[in-house]
């Protein structure tokens, strides 16, 4: 029984991360865009849905849609400014937006509750199911449904003509431009769509935990989602989802171990060590196995793209 | 007599499994000007880049004055005496004309270091423009600077990739006349050219590269008359399309 | 008014130094290094350790301040040691991580790798030193009043702050001479422009890359020590400066040393003048606004040479 409770709790988090990782996979795996502000877009979604459902009393479903819309609008503005030039400017700009969102969350007390965040975020269906295991399982089913829907939708998008153009752009911008497709528009679309999924992930998180605070959206979150994608392997949705489960597993187990092993006074240092370990893991996988565990097998080489023209 | 530069059955390319050079061979005797001709995409640039150490050579050898330099890293080639002027982007646009030359001179051992005054004597324009950022030079001036940059390292063999590209006929004449002077100073020259006529006019011998292999090699004067020359250009063009 | 200017110049000095290092590595190594901020932090902390060591070795265990400053010569020695160690750290990270990714031609992966390396470095530091703020000296400094209160609000500045501004100028001038007068400097600029041509011209690009890491990390360490001297030494020191560093480097135009310096001072001044308008808590957002503005208006920066 306890195992079931713990398992559903763990899987719920893992699936929420999977939604974010799917969004990042669309951006990095399929469009070659590096978003270093994942935490920022997740925060936008989480705060948007939390505010809409608490302050305005909207139903949760509308909150989630609002979360996606808010994250999408932010992504559109950022993408418009940053996708014009060098691709790494996007990394810097998204990093910046995450920093700014963190500042706003901390300091716009009236709106975000400042460092204390927002409490009592409604848990959907809890009126019927209570707050126990039954609710956990139901929410897990709901999140799994979202993961499935996102996966299915992404697979269809990516397999279609839109996805083919996107991959061609990633492989060789010059070749793609000569195809006559305005590369920038496709990348912006992929970026916005990916950020909407991250925003949705944030909303799922907010309504699962029931309270949010700025410290839930620190850069380490960005880093975790990246770790998931890189370990799982970018370019395939399976990689994103499997990576989410695996890295979240490693994260919770190593966190638990460090908590058990270290004395109370050393806990903060233990948490730091945990991030170091995951950082080394990412680096090692980038070096040793750049395609991750389930990454895209055959990349379209630039010559294949040329042949296709 | 050992050739100044010998390329022997070179196979190589940019990406594994996609050979661009398919067994190309070529020898340049000391003091010679050899023209390397061939249709677009034949692999001429790739061949000289491979000799200069910029493109991986999978098999085959490069000899400079009889010494095997196949595995010598690119930045050591200059010290060995092999100079290279690439087809495009062959100057440092963010450095001044003078800095371009100073840098090239400083990177070779003292006994190879050419005098800047000699370069300026050969290319008087450059002396006048020496303070200018090289990016502001005209096409002809750039080409002169690129050649001067390579010469200041006192190469025994100089490879040039289409030095006439984009120049007016008059400027082409000037560049080629300078190359003639360079050869008379004792430098062996391998000249990649699209401009067949101009190249055959100053070359002693020529080779035609098609699909990564030399097809036709001979004295420049003979090749100029050879009906097969045009055929190779045309034929390859048709095959490629 | 004048006081804001002075504060902006002090912060701008730190940003300028860090941004110069960033712009060098950006243009020569060809990727946005998110680890640059951590080199600042590591430099600041390594100087704490080195200072303790130097003070202990030279006997007495106390640092005698020189003249009007809050610190003694020991801190300058410690800064040099910290710069050398930080350079070593950068070389180590390059050897372990970046060099291998470069060799595979996976240039874009470098950005993500540097992001991971930055987090690991920051947390490793936190693991080693803890999170409590550190100081080089506990001396209280009397600020000098340069301009009386009734002229534009007056201006007070500490000798340390003046020294930071002055030394920044000296370091940047030295770097400028290195880049324009020496073969190494010209080779670095040549490599930034065109690595393949640089190799053809005889530049040992691997050596240039090492030199770039050494210079970039040493500058970061000096910036970190300056930041620690005029403020606190905390594990978040460099991370919080990363956005201003990028804004300054892009504002100045990637690869331009004077551009990065000017960008650093502009960002520093913008931050300090934003305080009375938006409040101190949003200070860090200013750099982001500068960044967005420059991306929209002049994406190549003020002195950018090429797109
Ligand atoms: N950097 C590169 N990466 C991959 N393939 C390349 C690269 N440069 C050239 N190629 C390919 O190598 C082949 C030969 O090109 P190369 O430039 O050597 O031809 P060339 O004979 O010099 O032609 P041109 O007369 O147009 O200069 C072409 O098919 C070209 O597409
Ligand atoms: Mg060519």
From TrEMBL, chain A:
Cleavable signal peptide: none
Segments crossing the lipid bilayer: 6-26, 33-52, 58-82, 89-108, 128-154, 190-211, 240-258, 270-288
Subcellular location: Cell membrane
Principal cellular location given in the protein's record: membrane
InterPro entries on file: ABC_transp_permease, LivM-like
Pfam families in the cross-refs: BPD_transp_2
Domain of life according to the entry: Bacteria
Membrane topology category: Multi-pass membrane protein
Keyword vocabulary terms for this entry: Cell membrane, Membrane, Transmembrane, Transmembrane helix
Protein's UniProt name: Branched-chain amino acid ABC transporter permease
UniProtKB/TrEMBL annotation, chain B:
Boundaries of every ABC transporter domain copy: 5-236
Stored InterPro entries: AAA+_ATPase, ABC_transporter-like_ATP-bd, ABC_transporter-like_CS, BCAA_Transport_ATP-bd_LivF
Keyword Nucleotide-binding: yes
SMART domains: AAA (SM00382)
Pfam families listed in its UniProt record: ABC_tran
GO molecular function ontology, one term from the record: ATP binding
Key words of the record: Amino-acid transport, ATP-binding, Nucleotide-binding, Transport
Family: Belongs to the ABC transporter superfamily.
Full protein name: ABC transporter ATP-binding protein
Species of the source: Falsiroseomonas tokyonensis
From TrEMBL, chain C:
Record Pfam families: BPD_transp_2
Keywords noted in UniProt: Amino-acid transport, Cell inner membrane, Cell membrane, Membrane, Transmembrane, Transmembrane helix, Transport
Compartments in which it is found: Cell membrane
Topology in the lipid bilayer: Multi-pass membrane protein
Major subcellular site: membrane
InterPro entries: ABC_transp_permease, BCAA_transport_permease
TM helices/strands, residue ranges: 6-27, 39-63, 75-98, 105-125, 162-179, 200-229, 241-270, 282-299
Entry similarity comment: Belongs to the binding-protein-dependent transport system permease family. LivHM subfamily.
Protein name as catalogued: Branched-chain amino acid ABC transporter permease
């Amino acid at each position: 029984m306890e195992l079931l409770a713990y398992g559903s709790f763990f899987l719920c988090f893992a699936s929420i991360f999977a939604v974010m990782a799917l969004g990042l996979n669309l951006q990095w795996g399929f469009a070659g865009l590096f978003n270093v502000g994942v935490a920022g877009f997740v925060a936008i979604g989480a705060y948007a849905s939390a505010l809409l459902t608490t302050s305005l009393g909207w139903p949760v479903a509308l909150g989630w849609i609002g979360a996606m819309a808010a994250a999408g609008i932010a992504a559109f503005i950022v993408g418009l400014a940053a996708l014009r030039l060098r691709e790494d400017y996007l990394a810097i700009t998204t990093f910046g937006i995450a920093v700014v969102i963190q500042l706003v969350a901390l300091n716009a007390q009236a709106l975000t509750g400042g460092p204390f965040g927002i409490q009592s975020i409604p848990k959907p269906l809890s009126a019927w199911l209570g707050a126990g295991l039954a609710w956990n399982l139901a929410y897990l089913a709901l999140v799994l449904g979202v993961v499935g829907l996102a996966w299915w939708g992404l697979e269809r998008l990516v397999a279609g003509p839109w996805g083919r153009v996107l991959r061609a752009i990633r492989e060789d911008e010059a070749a793609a431009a000569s195809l006559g497709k305005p590369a920038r528009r496709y990348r912006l679309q992929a970026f916005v769509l990916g950020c909407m999924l991250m925003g949705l992930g944030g909303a799922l998180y907010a309504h699962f935990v029931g309270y949010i605070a700025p410290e839930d959206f620190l850069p380490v979150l960005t880093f975790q989602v990246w770790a998931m994608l890189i370990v799982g392997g970018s370019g395939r949705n399976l990689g994103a989802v499997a990576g989410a489960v695996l890295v979240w597993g490693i994260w919770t187990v190593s966190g638990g171990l460090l908590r058990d092993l270290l004395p109370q006074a050393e806990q903060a240092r233990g948490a730091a060590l945990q991030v170091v370990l995951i950082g080394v893991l990412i680096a090692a996988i980038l070096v040793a196995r750049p395609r991750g565990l389930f990454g895209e097998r055959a990349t379209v080489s630039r010559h294949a793209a040329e042949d296709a023209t | 007599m050992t050739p100044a530069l010998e390329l022997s059955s070179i196979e190589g390319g940019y990406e594994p499994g996609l050979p661009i050079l398919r067994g190309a061979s070529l020898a340049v005797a000391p003091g010679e000007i050899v023209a390397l001709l061939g249709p677009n995409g034949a692999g001429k640039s790739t061949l000289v880049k491979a000799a200069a150490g910029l493109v991986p050579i999978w098999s085959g050898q490069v000899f400079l004055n009889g010494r095997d330099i196949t595995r010598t890293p690119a930045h050591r080639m200059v010290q060995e005496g092999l100079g290279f002027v690439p087809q495009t982007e062959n100057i440092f646009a963010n450095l001044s004309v003078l800095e371009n030359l100073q840098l090239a001179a400083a990177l070779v051992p003292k006994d190879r270091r050419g005098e800047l005054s000699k370069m300026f004597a050969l290319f008087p324009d450059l002396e006048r423009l020496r303070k200018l950022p090289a990016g502001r030079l005209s096409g002809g001036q750039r080409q002169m600077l690129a050649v001067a940059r390579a010469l200041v390292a006192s190469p025994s063999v100089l490879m040039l990739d289409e030095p006439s590209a984009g120049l007016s006929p008059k400027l082409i004449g000037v560049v080629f006349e300078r190359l003639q002077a360079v050869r008379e100073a004792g430098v062996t020259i391998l000249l990649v050219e699209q401009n067949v006529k101009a190249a055959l006019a100053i070359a002693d011998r020529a080779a035609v590269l098609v699909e990564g292999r030399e097809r036709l090699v001979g004295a420049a004067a003979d090749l100029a008359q050879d009906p097969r020359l045009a055929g190779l250009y045309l034929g390859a063009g048709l095959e490629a399309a | 008014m004048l006081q804001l200017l002075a504060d902006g110049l002090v912060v701008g000095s730190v940003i300028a130094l860090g941004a110069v290092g960033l712009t060098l590595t950006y243009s020569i190594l060809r990727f946005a290094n998110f680890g640059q901020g951590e080199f600042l932090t590591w430099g600041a902390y390594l100087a704490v350790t080195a200072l303790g060591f130097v003070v202990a070795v030279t006997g007495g265990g106390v640092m005698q301040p020189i003249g009007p400053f809050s610190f003694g010569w020991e801190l300058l020695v410690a800064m040099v040691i910290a710069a050398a160690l930080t350079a070593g750290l950068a070389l180590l990270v390059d050897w372990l991580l970046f060099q291998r990714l470069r060799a595979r031609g996976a240039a874009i992966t470098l950005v993500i790798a540097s992001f991971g390396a930055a987090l690991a470095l920051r947390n490793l530091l936190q693991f080693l030193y803890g999170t409590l703020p550190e100081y080089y000296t506990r001396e209280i400094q009397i600020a000098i009043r340069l301009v009386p209160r009734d002229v534009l609000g007056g201006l007070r500045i500490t000798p340390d702050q003046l020294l930071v501004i002055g030394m920044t100028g000296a370091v940047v001038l030295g770097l400028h001479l290195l880049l324009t007068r020496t073969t190494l400097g010209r080779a670095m600029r040549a490599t930034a422009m065109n690595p393949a041509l640089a190799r053809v011209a005889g530049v040992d690009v691997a050596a240039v890359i090492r030199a770039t890491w050494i210079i970039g990390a040493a500058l970061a360490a000096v910036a970190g020590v300056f930041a620690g001297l005029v403020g606190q030494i905390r594990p978040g020191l460099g991370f919080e400066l990363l956005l201003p560093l990028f804004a300054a480097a892009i504002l100045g135009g990637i690869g331009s040393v004077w551009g990065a310096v000017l960008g650093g001072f502009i960002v520093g001044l913008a931050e300090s003048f934003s305080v009375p308008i938006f409040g101190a808590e949003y200070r860090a957002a200013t750099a982001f606004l500068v960044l967005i503005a420059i991306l929209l208006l002049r994406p190549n920066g003020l002195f950018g040479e090429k797109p």
